[in-house]
Write a structure and sequence with these properties.
15-stranded mixed beta sheet; alpha+beta; 3-stranded antiparallel beta sheet; globular
Amino acid sequence: MKQIALCLLLAGTSVVQAQIRNTEVYELPHLDKSNERNVINIPGFGNYETLKCDFHIHTVFSDGLVWPDMRVQEAWQEGLDAIAITDHIEYRPRKEVLKGDRNESYKIAKKAADAKGFIVIQGTEITRSKPLGHLNALFIQDAEAMDVEDPLKAIDEAKRQGAFILWNHPGWPDDKSTLYPVHEQLLKADKIDGIEVFNYAEYYPAALDWCDRYGKAYMANTDAHGLVASVYGWGDKLMRPLTLVFASERSERGIRDALSAGRTVAYFDGKLAGSPELLEKLLKACLSVRPIGDNRLEVTNRSDLSFEMTGGGALYRFPARKVVLIDRPKTTAFTVENCLTGNKKLTLSFPE
């Protein structure tokens, strides 16, 4: 009798999922996942929440392969909180085919984002060869005004519009991360505000030291041209690089204020890079410790990040969303192997 009841229940479920549109068409709405998104669980600390962002993305309006509203869709579904549309000023190979000026891709993306409660930041990429290289101007109002011959004047115009300037992929395209005099001048004049320590699939160790030396925001972005999932895969929701922003509110203004204050951590390939203060606060927000008797500790990682720590000659792994039981360490001095500050690994006291 129980088996008959179970069969009837399962049959009833399939009927609910297959809705009749007419006598010849059955609709299966459960197959459409376009209104579902991942949740990336990274806790905030103090008065800040952690926003997951990508500040370097291209569309078909420069040399990307994706329509602007689909950039919003993929980022929303992957669990991000904000993206910046940063099409090139100087390189627009489809300008004879696509109507619209250098602001059009943002306008299309913004309309789609507003319908989802998502944040899209208007930006553009100032694209020159080295020694200057490429820089993103974020939080602008008009990309057209930066279409000038002198790139330094383009940077000045971006700053006049209130832009945050990001130095992109400093090790590209010659595999040399060189701090040229023009960069030193811009950094000292606060005309470069953040540096990509990771771009696409490249990691720039020298850029970590520059962020530390000049007090600039650590950033990691995809520089996406094609579909993000086609590069980083569909399985792990933390495969793509992200800039983690510690914001006082979930808004464009909250992100802008956090970037200005340098409250960012770059996430890439399981690594975290940022200032020691922010990394320590983030780690302690993710991990909690409960004593078990006199000699053991239960460590709970309530985040989607994983951590590896060494101390007292032992290695400790705290995987994402796991509880780990360990013998009480003989030391409270630890090195966090996957947390970088400058070119050093984070050291901290844990547990306290």
